[in-house]
Amino acid sequence: MNIGLLLYIPYRDLENRIMAAVTGAGFDVTLAQARVLQRIGPDGTRLTELAEAAQVTKQTAGFLVDQLEKLGYVERVPDPTDGRARLVRVTEKAKGATPVAEAEIARIEAEWEQHIGKRRMAQLREALEKLGEITDPYR
Amino acid sequence: MNIGLLLYIPYRDLENRIMAAVTGAGFDVTLAQARVLQRIGPDGTRLTELAEAAQVTKQTAGFLVDQLEKLGYVERVPDPTDGRARLVRVTEKAKGATPVAEAEIARIEAEWEQHIGKRRMAQLREALEKLGEITDPYR
DNA sequence: TGTTTTAGTCAGCCTCTCTGATTAAAGTAG
DNA sequence: CTACTTTAATCAGAGAGGCTGACTAAAACA
């Protein structure tokens, strides 16, 4: 079986479950919105940085931030260090989502470890981390 | 680091490279089209089956098959065993794409093995296959 | 025979993503 | 200090890919 599909199957499962947990907890965000939301730093992040981190164009990031803003999950404030820029900041409303996602990830990882064993889980992580060295374009 | 991202990074790298190889060889298909094309069996496959395998609705699969048909990569023929159904079949024109994709996969796997070592590569495969048992909705 | 299921299509809509052009502020070279 | 270039963000327009709902025709079943 193709290694690509082997990687994709658990990834999709994980992503679906995290999204289900987050939306189930009342945070009504889409996957694309969540990908942006996730990258906003504690003191706010510029749109351009978000776009780079999420690997989309500035226009796409702007579009998603517009939606998140309308939903009340983020706000845009002027960047005091640069008159052109604005900082996208997570609102209080959105801050509850992170622990929900993290709890679900922990739950899934525990299930996986339960099924494939502690040893194999550690090997999986190790192999993937090493693979990231040559496949991650952002390092 | 999040296990989801760890899975996703090499997956995306693989997918991007396969698509680059296939389109570079002159097969002008999009990712979504390729996902459908890939699932067509040697004797043709019904639209409904393709939709299930690719995890999209029948309408979406039909839309993609329409495009592939216009491009000359597939043809629709009546299913002799069911008057309602039609079989989607890969044309000669598209058959050259498979070896291109397979060669690229082989090349990538060799590179990965080179970097992380034969042992870790085998462990990775083993862990992923076992993980598929609980994360693959189609088994 | 009449009802229900199944294969596929038609119509319409939404989300996400892109390219290209524009505005305003910052940085830089003369 | 002024003119040019770069950078942050937005506006405008388009296209791909996905969905739901309604429908037709053939098959399966009671």
Mind explaining what this structure looks like?
Chains A, B: GO terms for molecular function: DNA binding; DNA-binding transcription factor activity. Chains A, B: Pfam families: MarR_2. Chains A, B: This is MarR family transcriptional regulator. Chains A, B: Residues 1-133 form the HTH marR-type domain. The structure is a homodimer of 139-residue chains. By secondary structure, chain A is mainly α. Chain A folds into 2 domains: 1-27 and 96-139, no CATH class; 32-91, Winged helix-like DNA-binding domain superfamily/Winged helix DNA-binding domain (Arc Repressor Mutant, subunit A, Orthogonal Bundle). The first copy, chain A, is 67% helix and 9% strand. Chain A has 7 helices and 3 strands; from the N terminus they run ααβααββααα. Chain A has helices spanning 3-24, 31-37, 47-54, 58-71, 92-95, 97-116, 118-135, and strands at 45-46, 74-78, 86-90. In chain A, α1 (3-24) packs across α6 (97-116), α2 (31-37) crosses α4 and α6 (97-116) packs across α7. The two termini of chain A are 29 Å apart. Chain A binds a DNA duplex (30 and 30 nucleotides) through α4.
Output the keywords:
homodimer; 139 residues; mainly alpha; Arc Repressor Mutant, subunit A; 2 domains; three-stranded antiparallel sheet; 7 helices; 3 strands; DNA-binding
Fold topology:
Two copies of one chain form a homodimer.
Chain A: H1 3-24, H2 31-37, E1 45-46, H3 47-54, H4 58-71, E2 74-78, E3 86-90, H5 92-95, H6 97-116, H7 118-135
Antiparallel strand pairs in A: 1-3, 2-3
Helix pairs in contact in A: 1-6, 2-4, 3-4, 6-7
The first copy, chain A, binds a DNA duplex (30 and 30 nucleotides) through residues 30, 32, 46-48, 56-60, 62-64, 67, 79, 82-86.
